[in-house]
TrEMBL record:
Organism: Geotrichum candidum (Oospora lactis)
Subcellular compartments: Cytoplasm
InterPro entries in alphabetical order: Aminotransferase_I/II_large (IPR004839), Class-I_PLP-dep_aminotransf (IPR050859), PyrdxlP-dep_Trfase (IPR015424), PyrdxlP-dep_Trfase_major (IPR015421)
Listed EC numbers: 2.6.1.57
The family this protein is said to belong to: Belongs to the class-I pyridoxal-phosphate-dependent aminotransferase family.
Keywords assigned: Aminotransferase, Cytoplasm, Pyridoxal phosphate, Transferase
GO biological process, one term: tyrosine biosynthetic process
GO CC term, one of those recorded: cytoplasm
Annotated ranges, domain Aminotransferase class I/classII large: 101-464
Reaction catalysed by this enzyme: an aromatic L-alpha-amino acid + 2-oxoglutarate = an aromatic oxo-acid + L-glutamate
Lineage, highest ranks first: Eukaryota, Fungi, Dikarya, Ascomycota, Saccharomycotina
Name recorded for this polypeptide: aromatic-amino-acid transaminase
UniProt-listed SUPFAM superfamilies: PLP-dependent transferases
GO MF terms, alphabetically ordered: 2-aminoadipate transaminase activity; aromatic-amino-acid transaminase activity; pyridoxal phosphate binding
Highest taxon, organism lineage: Eukaryota
Length: 477
């Protein structure tokens, strides 16, 4: 079988990335721990002076037979993890003497090896020279991506509704964000093809996309559309940046209570239900995948990873050497300790239980949307992944849309947003996520984003009942 290797995409690198050379002290780092060399060259404090002798945490233990959103019922349900300052060389733990020292920017080998094996199980990249490096979560990874590939004045592509922080980060780098037409599933490949076919000026280098459980719309792009978008990346020579913190929060389609059946998936069938990622379809090394533990373990861990071709990841590392240096040693030791004890099977069990928990939350939210949000003015598509639901409202049905709001749905959106707060419920206005073109038409549609991740199922019912009351009052229903 012919082996595939990544395509040379160095022409997409930014001026900054091209100008970076290896940081010389970092290049000498490999000699600092050589037992045959007396190292007087590195500013590394001796671990004997670290005040932390050990750290101990506990977690739920696989196979999570009582679920993952309940307190442990017995010692059997609890896994105690102790990380010592010094550990036997054969241990898979990451000792504090190592993790709390200056270390490799790509991440410590123990956790990198686990993540690479995880990526082989889930995505199995098709070309040989792919790799993984750690990040401090996807927000930092996205900023690093922009610095690696773009220069001030460049244009990048993004879904017309996208994560507002990502768009703002791009604008702060002096970039123009060009919106790509989407529907409630995600990017429409035919529209993107037409957009690029008629493009004027330098072609965009990057497409930024959140293809699974999209923030804010909750949409998930089908494999068919992903393949079509990837072909366009080859045709027009751009890099796909898939920002995928919600990838494992996939679930079955929403059905009414009377039609629901128990979720009896095992780990292997669970993997088969996952939509193909862009990195799994990539044959040329033109996909950069941003992944994270934020939504599957804890946001405050600030630990993620970037998957891509080795030649491009080396440019990230040169930037990391003089910016973040390395992801938190505490986070690496604790997360690695957890994952090594769970193993790949235990981690899959955890992800499977997350799917079940989020499915129940999604169902509770959509049950409430169906019950309380007036269909006379609103429509929605139940999400099949992620943490968000997206409600589209016809602003033209408001009695004062023309006279009071000047036919501007954004003005009405803000009034409803404030009315919701006054009534005790927070829903986020859709236009806060809108990637705007110059003189973009306002139309008559407005949107609100809600999440089912942050509250209990009973509070979802309460919150959406309140939101429905606000809409009925606003529209005189």
């Amino acid at each position: 079988m012919t082996q595939l290797y990544a395509k040379d995409l160095s022409h997409h690198l930014s001026i900054e990335a091209k100008s970076r050379t290896a940081e010389q002290i970092k290049a000498a780092f490999k000699h600092f721990k050589d037992p045959n060399i007396v190292s007087l060259g590195g500013g590394l404090p001796t671990p004997d002076l670290f005040p932390f002798n050990s750290i101990e945490v506990s977690s739920l233990a696989p196979p999570f037979k009582n679920g993952i959103d309940v307190l442990p019922q017995s010692d059997e349900d609890l896994l105690k993890i102790t990380i010592d300052k010094y550990t036997h060389p054969d241990s898979t733990d990451l000792p504090l003497s190592v993790s709390l020292q200056y270390g490799p920017s790509f991440g410590h080998p123990q956790i990198i090896q686990f993540i690479k094996e995880h990526n082989k199980i889930i995505h199995n990249p098709k070309y040989e020279d792919w790799d993984v490096i750690l990040s401090v979560g996807n927000t930092q990874a996205w900023d690093a991506t922009l610095r690696t590939f773009t220069n001030r004045g460049d244009t990048i592509l993004a879904e017309q509704f996208t994560f507002s922080s990502s768009a703002e980060c791009a604008r702060a780098h002096g970039l123009t964000v060009a919106p790509v037409l989407t529907d409630l599933e995600g990017i429409i490949p035919e529209a993107l093809d037409k957009q690029l076919e008629n493009w004027e000026g330098p072609m965009p280098k990057l497409l930024y996309t959140i293809p699974t459980g999209q923030n804010p719309t909750g949409g998930t792009l089908s494999e068919e559309r992903r393949r079509a978008v990837y072909k366009l990346a080859q045709k027009y020579d751009f890099i796909i940046v898939e920002d995928e913190p919600y990838y494992f929060l996939q679930m079955d389609e929403y059905v009414e209570k009377s039609d629901r059946t128990p979720d009896n998936l095992d780990k292997h069938s669970f993997i088969k239900t996952l939509v193909s990622s862009y990195i799994s379809l990539d044959t040329e090394g033109r996909v950069v995948r941003l992944d994270s533990f934020s939504k599957v373990l804890a946001p405050g861990a600030r630990l993620g990873w970037i998957v891509g071709q080795k030649n491009l990841l080396e440019k990230y590392l040169k930037q990391h050497d003089v910016t973040i240096q390395i992801a938190s040693g505490f986070a690496q030791s604790i997360v690695n300790g957890l994952l090594q004890r769970w193993g790949q099977e235990g981690y899959l069990n955890w992800l499977l239980e997350l799917r079940r928990t989020y499915t129940n939350k999604r169902n509770a939210a959509l049950d409430a949307v169906e019950a309380y949000v007036p269909k006379e003015i609103a429509e929605w598509i139940p999400p099949t992944a992620g943490m968000f639901f997206w409600i589209k409202i016809d602003a033209s049905k408001h009695a004062d849309f023309v006279s009071k709001y000047d036919s501007d749905p954004e003005k009405l959106e803000l009034d409803i947003y404030q009315a919701g707060i006054d009534h005790g419920v927070l829903m986020i206005p859709g236009h806060w996520f809108l990637v705007k073109e110059k003189n973009h038409p306002k139309g008559t549609s407005m949107f609100f984003r809600g999440t089912f991740a942050s509250v209990t199922e009973d509070k979802l019912q309460v919150g959406l009942k309140l939101f429905g009351e606000v809409l009925r009052k606003q529209f005189n229903l």
